[in-house]
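Hi V.,

Quick status before I head out on leave. The structure for the redesign project is tokenized and pasted below; the design run finished overnight.
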């Protein structure tokens, strides 16, 4: 990489991913093709960010003298690790260098989008005059929109590049009473995950857990490790930019072979698969079906290569998406987009609050609530113990309580035992309702985390259309070209609308079911407490006064 000398002081805006440098500093130029007059650079202290090209001067030095023969050229194309059961195991190696999850991606200032925001500066250079093709550069090069190929798709740059048959519709959106929805050409099915088994390789050096996965529509049982789920997750995230692909459960550093963890992990993976199976698009895509049905090692490798060479990843997916013919009003689309954005932000805040409340409530069940009831139980037992000292004076010198006094003592002992048992009920109850609800809420929190990128992608789409309309009005763009971009943008908007409607429909169903389950368990819990208190109360009916 080349070195550059800073010609002038530059105070970068950290929120925009810019780098602060001073005149005379020497920086390493990482990339010069960022666009719009910006370079990506790194200081001597390891800070990375954007710097204006005009502030930089490449330092030219004498050519380096090679110390040996040139190294062999790198391979022209590489794929993710093909091995059906390779040595790099995400379950075993926490710091595995081949993590495939897209959220593991690191970069400047952190993960995702290379850790950068777009440089919020006005573009330099003259504006094009007269009619012509749309100028490139509607989106910054670090945005989700640009990385997923959104600009190329809208401008028609992707068409003709695919090796697959162009114009083939693989997925559809249809209009309904509730708005655009995903088409469902296949019968719905579900997936079972059972029989987790610890397996080893390399003479026991490596160990991992395999889960037996069986889809109901084929009955074919396949063995899958966590790393296979992680690979599938990465492929789905790469393929679908406006479809919710919830994050997988976190990797585990310790205790991953304990029975309780394995059962918990299996339940989480099962719910993740059910979520994907319930989606009309994900459930029919080739990579998902390959994961569910492939039993042969060679076929698995071939399927992996095919998935990693998929011509319709990211925004290219919209090339094979059929949508209704109705032209969308960009003003209406933008308003609905903003309304959903507000909904997501509000739901995120409420999910954080209720998840915290439910979590703390569960902790009180197994802690303070149990202790308080058992404290009451001990107090009642102490009262009964003191009542046992009732030795009323009698003529026949028999030191014993009367029948009624003994019956009262026994009833109070029973009451103390009842409160002990109620304390145990409180401690056991979270497994029946609180933990289930908390897991559900965390699952939805993970789903909501997918929307910011989707919203950003769609927002850039809307902005591109509005910019094209402006250029058309200023006669800087041909009418037909602007209409073609608007038509492609409508496909993106239809995809976003269909996914929003799918999410909202699932949300209503899911919350209905989870709240019925939660309240039903609460009712059973308090009915059990009521029955115990009622049984304790009947003990006093037998006390003879």
């Amino acid at each position: 990489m080349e070195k550059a000398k800073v010609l002038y002081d530059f105070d970068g805006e950290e929120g925009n991913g810019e780098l602060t440098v001073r005149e005379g500093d020497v920086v390493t130029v990482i990339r010069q093709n960022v666009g719009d007059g910006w370079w990506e650079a790194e200081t001597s202290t390891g800070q990375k960010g954007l710097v204006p090209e005009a502030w930089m001067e490449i330092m030219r030095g004498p050519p380096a003298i090679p110390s040996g023969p040139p190294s062999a050229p790198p391979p022209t194309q590489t794929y993710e690790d093909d091995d059906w059961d390779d040595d790099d195991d995400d379950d075993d190696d926490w710091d595995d260098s081949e993590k495939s999850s897209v959220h593991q991606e690191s970069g400047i200032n952190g993960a995702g989008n290379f850790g950068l925001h777009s440089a919020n500066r006005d573009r330099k250079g003259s504006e094009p005059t007269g009619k012509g093709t749309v100028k490139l550069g509607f989106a910054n090069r670090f945005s989700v929109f640009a990385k997923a190929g959104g600009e190329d798709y809208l401008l028609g740059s992707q068409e003709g590049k695919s090796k697959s048959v162009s114009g083939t519709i693989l997925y559809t959106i249809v209009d309904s009473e509730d708005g655009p929805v995903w088409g469902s050409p296949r019968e719905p099915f579900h997936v079972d995950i059972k029989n987790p088994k610890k397996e080893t390789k390399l003479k026991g050096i490596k160990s991992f857990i395999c889960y037996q996965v069986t889809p109901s529509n084929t009955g074919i049982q396949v063995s899958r490790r966590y790393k296979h789920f992680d690979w599938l997750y990465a492929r789905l995230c790469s393929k679908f930019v406006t479809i919710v692909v919830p994050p997988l459960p976190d990797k585990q550093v310790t205790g991953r072979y304990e029975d309780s963890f394995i059962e918990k992990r299996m339940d989480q993976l099962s719910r993740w698969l059910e979520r994907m199976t319930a989606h009309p698009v994900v459930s029919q895509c080739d990579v998902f079906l390959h994961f569910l049905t492939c039993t042969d090692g060679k076929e698995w490798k071939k399927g992996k290569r095919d998935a990693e060479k998929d011509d319709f990843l990211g925004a290219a997916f919209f090339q094979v998406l059929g949508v209704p013919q109705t032209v969308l009003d960009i003003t209406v689309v933008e308003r609905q987009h903003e309304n959903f954005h507000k909904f997501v932000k509000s739901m995120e805040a409420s999910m954080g609050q209720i998840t915290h409340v439910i979590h703390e409530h569960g902790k009180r069940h197994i802690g303070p609530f149990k202790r308080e009831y058992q404290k009451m139980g001990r107090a009642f037992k102490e009262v009964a113990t003191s009542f046992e000292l009732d030795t009323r004076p009698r003529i026949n010198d028999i030191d014993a309580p009367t029948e009624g006094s003994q019956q009262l003592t026994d009833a109070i002992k029973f009451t103390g035992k009842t409160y002990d048992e109620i304390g145990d009920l409180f401690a056991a109850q979270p497994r029946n309702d609180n933990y289930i609800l908390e897991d559900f809420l965390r699952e939805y929190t993970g789903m909501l985390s997918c929307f910011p990128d989707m919203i950003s992608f769609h927002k850039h789409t809307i902005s591109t259309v509005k910019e094209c309309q402006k250029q058309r009005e200023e006669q800087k763009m041909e009418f037909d070209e602007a209409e073609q971009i608007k038509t492609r943008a409508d496909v993106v908007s239809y995809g976003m609308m269909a996914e929003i409607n799918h999410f909202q429909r699932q949300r209503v169903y899911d919350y209905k079911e989870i709240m019925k389950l939660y309240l039903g368990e609460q009712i059973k819990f308090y009915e059990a407490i009521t029955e115990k208190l009622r049984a304790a109360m009947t003990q006093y009916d037998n006390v003879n006064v």
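Above is the designed sequence. Residues 63-83, 87-139 have pLDDT under 50 and may be disordered.

G. will cover questions while I'm gone.

Best,
W.
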